[in-house]
Amino acid sequence: MVKRKASQAKRGSYQRRSSRERTTKTKSKPNLDSFKRKINSVVVWFLVAINVVLISSLIHRLVTPYEEPPISTETILADALEVEVLNGCGVNGLANSFANFLRTENFDVVNIADADNYDYEKSLVIDRGTRDRREIEELCKRLGIPIERILLIDSDRYPCDATFILGADYQSLKAYQEIS
């Protein structure tokens, strides 16, 4: 029996300590719980605010019509192929007509002049080696000049990317059909 009383006394004292600890913990627990609730409340309101901003942005995009910014000719010509047009057949005003055509096709015509002579039987394009070959071929395609008539003359010092020389065959060119 003595052993039982001792063990009961131990249990009773254990229970007493544990109830004291519980009362001590329960006193600090409401402070911790209220702090957690405040933090949760702040986080929830923050997330609500973000959602409101995102939803209003979505509604604004859906309601407001999209308008593309206007493209200026400076923007188009900034990367355009720079072309020199030379009259190699002697027909007055022909180089100006072809230069105007090239401008409507978004090429940057940097020079219009007479060639070194008027004896060019065939029109041709001189590639100065400063741009991609496909761009020069596109110039030939728009003009109606066969790709075989592209001459490659590398020159970094020349003020343009390609030189177009009008020959006596200008009437057979696709571009001339569109000009006249």
Any overview of this molecule?
With 180 residues, this protein is an alpha/beta fold. It has two domains: 1-67; 73-179, Alpha-Beta Plaits (2-Layer Sandwich). 53% of the residues lie in helices and 14% in strands. The chain has five helices and five strands. It has helices spanning 2-63, 73-78, 94-104, 133-143, 174-179; strands at residues 82-87, 108-114, 124-127, 150-152, 162-166. The chain has a five-stranded mixed β-sheet, covered by helices on one side. It starts with a helix and ends with a helix. The mean pLDDT is 83.
Strand order of the largest sheet: 2-1-5-3-4
Just name the CATH architecture of the largest domain: 2-Layer Sandwich
Order of helices and strands: HHEHEEHEEH
Beta strand count: 5
* Helix fraction by DSSP (H/I, runs of at least 4): 40-55%
CATH topology of the largest domain: Alpha-Beta Plaits
**Strand percentage, roughly?**
5-15%
Tell me briefly what this model is.
It contains five helices and five strands. It has helices spanning 2-63, 73-78, 94-104, 133-143, 174-179; strands at 82-87, 108-114, 124-127, 150-152, 162-166. Strands 2-1-5-3-4 form a five-stranded mixed β-sheet, covered by helices on one side.
Blueprint (SSEs and pairs):
Elements: H1 2-63, H2 73-78, E1 82-87, H3 94-104, E2 108-114, E3 124-127, H4 133-143, E4 150-152, E5 162-166, H5 174-179
Parallel strand pairs: 1-2, 1-5, 3-4
Antiparallel strand pairs: 3-5
